[in-house]
Design goal:
Layout (H helix, E strand, L loop, with lengths): L1 H19 L15 H9 L14 E12 L3 E7 L4 E7 L5 H8 L6 E10 L5 E12 L9 E3 L2 E3 L5 H6 L1 H7 L1 H23 L3 E2 L5 E2 L11 E4 L4 E5 L4 H10 L3 E9 L11 E10 L3 H20 L3 E4 L2 E4 L5 E4 H9 L14 H10 L10 H13 L7 E4 L21 E6 L2 E2 L1 E5 L4 H16 L10 H9 L4 E7 H9 L18
Parallel strand pairs: 3-5, 8-12, 16-17
Antiparallel strand pairs: 1-2, 1-4, 2-3, 4-5, 6-7, 9-11, 10-11, 12-13, 13-21, 14-15, 17-18, 18-19, 18-20, 20-21
Helix pairs in contact: 5-6, 6-8, 6-14, 7-13, 9-11, 10-11, 12-13
């Protein structure tokens, strides 16, 4: 801490010297900045193989100083912007007195503007010969110590907590972090372009809702002063998007932020991004094909291949993906055969608990047969679904918005895609029978009264909307954060959310 304070004081001294010189260390603007990657391409060719002519025109760029090599009256700098880096050669021979004074008072982390001519050093390094050097922002908070080799710097943040709490530092020194969030932006843009090409309409629905419904999750509560009512942060946009299908739109989607008052882990953040997609005159089979199309399109567009490295695995997103029934997957991976109870109207919870306990599952505090079954799926099946797999035909008891499989009172037309042991989405043939939907809501209310922690709230206006008439519809939700984790080869959701929620520091 003492060393950091000393470095801070040194920088304050340099800042005061620059100000005393009459130089503004935080000027209003720097015009005509060229992107460094584009500049390199124009001046040195696609593969940095060209040599600019001796009378090459001067160019202007700017960025953060990430390396300094002092040569006495001259210095070699490395500066970086959002997309790239370039070497700067600066000396008292071409800089005026004030600019040279800035050069001699530079620190790692300063942001500078440079105007100069492209050239190659004797070692062939593409560089700019600075003719002017402008201080744009003096760095007063020393960045983490970084390693340097052959003029290049590498990520020096060993404190993972700092990466998440002070993401601006992570981005400033870690090229991989910058690349991850550029990839995230590209994924969002590519999905939108793909859906627009399929004639889907992008819409927006409320984030403050009077009824927390559309998913089984604990909501965040807030209070609206003017109306004096309790409101909830959105846990899902589903019921509003289906209202739009009722209203006559046939293909809609929303890139939405949701808020669920639940645990934090490498797979969960209380605030997260999803895309939800609804298509009239479609079903869950339609949504399965759409899911495969979206993932394959993303891979080919952004990676150039359907083969993705992830940890020690190579994930193949090439369609079609494997399909397996929910109960079949439990029987296959745990040996528990819950299907034998489907002939009964009320499958026995006590027997299910005994079966679960026999393989080491702790189900004694669960209330229903299907909660026990879902525990077996979560513990014994989900972690083993590494390659893309469509798990189909979920229990109706935990799928209150999905259509039943014809002739089967217990299962519904629902699927979840799994990759790398994580649920990537959720989809089903949407229930459009208003009377059945009302019965399902009532069942959820009864479960809540019996102690179930996460159930779906009854939305009476949504039932009214269904009474107006909703055509057969397929719905699909994909978790964007987990999608980015897959494409960026990250194991923690905190690595793909710019500012993840953390416990405040004391």
């Amino acid at each position: 801490m003492g060393e950091l304070t000393e470095l801070h004081e040194q920088r304050l001294t340099k800042l005061a010297a620059i100000v005393d010189r009459g130089i503004d260390p935080y000027p209003v603007r720097f015009t005509d900045k060229q992107d460094i990657t584009a500049l390199r391409r124009e001046a040195f060719g696609e593969s940095d193989d060209l040599t600019p002519p001796e009378n090459a025109a001067a160019v202007a760029t700017a960025g953060r100083v990430v390396a300094i090599r002092d040569m006495g009256k001259a210095q070699f700098l490395q500066i970086q912007d959002q997309n790239g880096r370039i070497q700067i050669y600066a000396s008292n021979k071409t800089l005026n007195d004030n600019d040279y004074f800035v050069l001699t008072h530079l620190d790692l982390g300063d942001i500078v503007g440079v105007k100069g001519r492209p050239f190659r050093t004797k070692t062939g390094e593409p560089s700019l010969h600075a003719e002017s050097l402008t201080m744009l922002s003096k760095n007063l908070q020393p960045l983490p110590v970084v390693k340097e080799k052959d003029g290049e710097t590498y990520d020096g943040i060993s404190d993972i907590e700092m990466r998440y709490r002070q993401r601006y530092i992570d981005l400033a020194v870690n090229p991989d972090a910058r690349a991850t969030f550029l990839l995230r932006s590209a994924i969002l843009r590519t999905i939108r372009e793909f859906l627009h090409a399929q004639n889907f309409i992008e819409v927006e629905t409320p984030m403050l809702q009077a009824v927390a419904s559309g998913a089984a999750a604990r909501p965040f509560k807030t209070h609206h002063n003017a109306l004096d009512i309790e409101l909830y942060m959105r846990i899902a946009p589903e019921l509003y998007l289906k209202r739009l299908i009722v209203g006559g739109y046939e293909k809609v989607f929303e890139m939405n932020r949701n808020f669920r008052n639940e645990g934090i882990s490498t797979k969960h953040n209380p605030e997260f991004t999803m895309i939800e997609i609804y298509q009239a005159y479609a079903d869950y089979e339609t949504m399965m094909r759409l899911t495969e199309d979206i993932f394959e399109h993303l891979a080919l567009k952004l990676i150039g291949s359907t083969e993705l490295p992830y940890g020690k695995h190579v994930i193949s997103l090439k369609k079609p993906w494997k399909r397996i029934g929910y109960l079949e997957s439990i029987r296959e991976m745990s040996g528990l055969d819950f299907e034998k109870f489907l002939t009964e109207e009320n499958p026995p919870v006590a027997e299910a608990k005994k079966m679960a306990a026999a393989i080491g599952l702790k189900a004694e505090n669960l209330n229903t047969f299907w909660e026990v079954v879902d525990l077996a799926f979560s513990e014994k099946v989900e972690p083993n679904l590494v390659q893309p797999t469509m798990v189909t035909h979920f229990p109706k008891a935990i799928s209150p918005l999905a259509k039943s499989i014809p002739g089967n009172p217990h299962l519904v037309e629902r699927f979840e895609p799994y990759i790398t042991g994580r649920e990537m989405g959720n989809a089903f043939s949407e229930l459009n029978d208003p009377l059945e939907q009302e019965r399902r809501f009532n069942e959820q209310a009864a479960q809540k009264a019996e102690g179930a922690g996460e159930t779906m709230e009854t939305d009476t206006d949504f039932v009214t909307a269904l009474k107006v008439g909703m055509p057969p519809t397929g719905g699909l939700g994909i978790g964007i954060d987990r999608l980015v984790m897959l494409f960026a080869n990250k194991s923690s959701i905190k690595d793909v959310i710019l500012f993840p929620l953390l416990r405040p520091q004391k």
